[in-house]
């Protein structure tokens, strides 16, 4: 049942999906019609509501993809397809402790906090206080504050933790953090790095190899959306051709040679 | 520390990655050399070991991708890239209860069990007993038995549960299960379906729409692997061009019209 | 040397490339500056010119891709990547005679006329006179009139030619033309068909098979554009994810069975 | 009608397509059956023939894709999808004169010779005599000798021609040839370069820009083959994920600055 202060997905149609915080006395408006948020309180998730125009809308429990679409984000954030694979390929499980740099708008942070569950912890580093303030608000909005620790520090100078389960990097020069990441990781733990340009693939891959990581993979995911229409099903014409590359490796206890 | 009966990843190189159960007195052999498994017991994950040939290898904690590569699977299983996105886009969280059909070799089952954590539950249906026996063994191997319930039943006749958080379908005619899935799902809950052929996209999409689902998306993921090599970094030449399509939707409480 | 009435490519930058007919006394204007076309007459192709604003521009001989970008086209036209492969895979050579339906805005017609050379002929069918008028003007503009014959007729009732080297179809229901195409083609000649949706692939493929065609292939081309930038080379973010599918086959003299 | 010494495509099925020279008294054999080539002489292209096993086969006029599949080639050759787009985007027409380096096994040479027609000329450079001997034989086999001139020379020392219509490069370090290519090209003429790795894109692009080329594009084509099967049409599972990148530009008469 939806209560005041809950964050919900307000779904009018495929192009009009909003993330809103339910507040008494507040009104939500769009080009398809408006609704008084009071009327949403007490409804079951999934319910149909009627807008001022007579159009129908639905109240849904926010998924991570809804959060991606609705999040306040002054900076470019990672795409769901990439976040999904980064988390999956890292091997993390509920209850794990992971490091992240940089925080950015906090979308990867939120996704990690979701997956790690109540006992898990994300420690997220950034060098920009203004960005972390935005990320903090995003994380508060979603009631995930207990799972996240913010640190305002340049990880090129090292992490403060050790023996963590996985490390996620989305920053301009991750090769400068490879050695620090190795030190902070639990043996056999994963590092997962996102970079947007081709020359970074090589730099990251070589830095990982030289820092004691093994099982190094560089991968790219292309997502195609399909239009479903009777006798006219086909991929959508225009879309995202490129986001970036995911490079991952695992900490080995290599004997020095 | 690695104990007897632990399932470990035995990593020799990128093409020689094995999932093995550590047993006293047993030997592991490959074209790159052999090792007595006794010598692995007591080692820390990440440790380097030396094969009979002098070659080095590493003992790692199995990730889901290792499990994918090493799992006993007489049938085609879903690819990690697809499983990652199916789980992510479903919005499930640790502790949730989900349904799955069919079980197949159990790779999606295992991935779900990992993500749902100790408090989560996967109820998985199949019509083939022989397949479920294999899946059961795979799940036992990974010590996930407590999180999984097996049912030998045709879901085209309906699910036995209700109010579940999400439903995952990987079966030849999922359109025949759309209505039953709707009935078993919690409002706002997700259905996520995998199909290999183009004409199935349309059939599934239309069935979902006609069964009360909204926010219906059909997507496809193409994964490109890159070779990392100094001054010669490029995508690998040959690879998997196609696995299938992922169609998802959410249960709405639509007023009948 | 550029003469009056020549059609040239006027290149200001990657996003400002125009196809213009050089006329005395006329002026060309853009947001980057203007130029009197008189000043272009007599220049060598490749020359640099200065716009009213001081910006530089270049006069180039139009390539087929320039024509694609600059052509008057009320309807969607085939993309260069698809036209290139359709022509190449058809096996046609200079001097050949080919059929096409429908004409549309004439971009494939123009491409065929270019490749077939002075001795080649394109006979192009359409059912819409208004479209053929536009195509005719496009073909006149490029001085290719001698190579093209226009026919206003529904090819579902058959072609008027026989023994042609290849047939190209870009129309909604090409399966209804497979048998007529077979009759009009020279044995061993190619049919090449473009369709935008997935269900059409199957319908076309089966119609070709049932009409005596062999060596039937269905293919799709995805083109990724790259941004070249020092230390930041990468695919462009947004692009064309889908145009359509190319299905081709060759006429065999199969004994009836 | 097929005569002795003609090169034909012998098509048994999608996986058994052969390029053979028809010789009296010779026999062609495959795992699907054999045939005496005498029986092919005098047949019309497209004809059905019966193999020793009773299986059917077809004699076809070789297309460029047949030649690609059947060509003797000790080195990796460019793929048809890339050759098609390289030629198309170059803007060349029948009768043009083009340069190529390196010759390799001659597949691009053959494709160019086909498109340029009887009046066109390809001048092809390579530094390896053994490769050019193979290419020569391939070109002789296809009766294209009159259209091709072979030169055994390192183009990094310059081309011997000037005012050519287009230049095609498929060699390890094309950036070292950009300036020579500029000198040999007709103003407004195209250079089209193929490279397999990501770091080469940037090097080539910058070299072209610094050598007076404009309208520089870097592109990549991904081809997906589809299986056509009733109710089971879908992309083929395994395929070529990567061949290389195509970079092209046009010679401008830039004022030096």
Automatic annotation (TrEMBL), chains A, B, C, D:
S-adenosyl-L-methionine binds at residues 105-108, 126, 154, 170. Coiled coil: none annotated. The keyword S-adenosyl-L-methionine applies. GO terms for cellular component: tRNA (m1A) methyltransferase complex. Keywords: Methyltransferase, S-adenosyl-L-methionine, Transferase, tRNA processing. One of its GO terms (molecular function) is tRNA (adenine(58)-N1)-methyltransferase activity. Gene3D superfamilies: 3.10.330.20, Vaccinia Virus protein VP39. SUPFAM superfamilies: S-adenosyl-L-methionine-dependent methyltransferases (SSF53335). GO terms for biological process: tRNA methylation. InterPro entries: SAM-dependent_MTases_sf, TRM61_C, tRNA_MeTrfase_Gcd14. This is tRNA (Adenine-N1)-methyltransferase. It comes from Sulfurisphaera javensis.
């Amino acid at each position: 049942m939806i209560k005041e202060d809950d964050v919900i997905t307000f779904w009018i149609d495929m192009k009009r999906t909003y993330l809103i915080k339910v507040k008494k006395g507040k009104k939500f408006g769009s080009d398809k019609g408006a609704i008084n948020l009071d009327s949403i309180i007490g409804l079951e998730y999934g319910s149909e509501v009627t807008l001022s125009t007579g159009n129908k809308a639905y109240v849904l429990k926010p998924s991570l993809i809804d959060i991606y679409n609705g999040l306040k984000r002054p900076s470019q954030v990672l795409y769901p397809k990439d976040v999904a694979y980064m988390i999956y390929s890292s091997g993390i499980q509920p209850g794990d402790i992971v490091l992240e740099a940089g925080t950015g708008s906090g979308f990867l942070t939120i996704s990690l906090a979701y997956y790690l569950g109540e006992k898990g912890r994300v420690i997220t580093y950034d060098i920009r206080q203004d960005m972390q303030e935005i990320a903090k608000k995003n994380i508060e909005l979603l009631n995930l504050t207990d799972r996240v620790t913010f640190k305002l520090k340049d990880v090129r100078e090292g992490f403060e933790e050790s023996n963590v389960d996985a490390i996620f990097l989305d920053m301009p020069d991750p090769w400068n953090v490879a050695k620090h990441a190795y030190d902070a990781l639990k043996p056999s733990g994963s590092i997962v790095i996102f970079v947007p340009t081709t020359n970074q693939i090589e730099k990251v891959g070589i830095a990982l190899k030289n820092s004691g990581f093994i099982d190094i993979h560089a991968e790219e995911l292309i997502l195609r959306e399909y239009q479903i229409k009777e006798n006219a099903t086909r991929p959508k014409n225009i879309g995202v051709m490129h986001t970036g590359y995911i490079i991952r490796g695992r900490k080995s206890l290599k004997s020095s040679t």
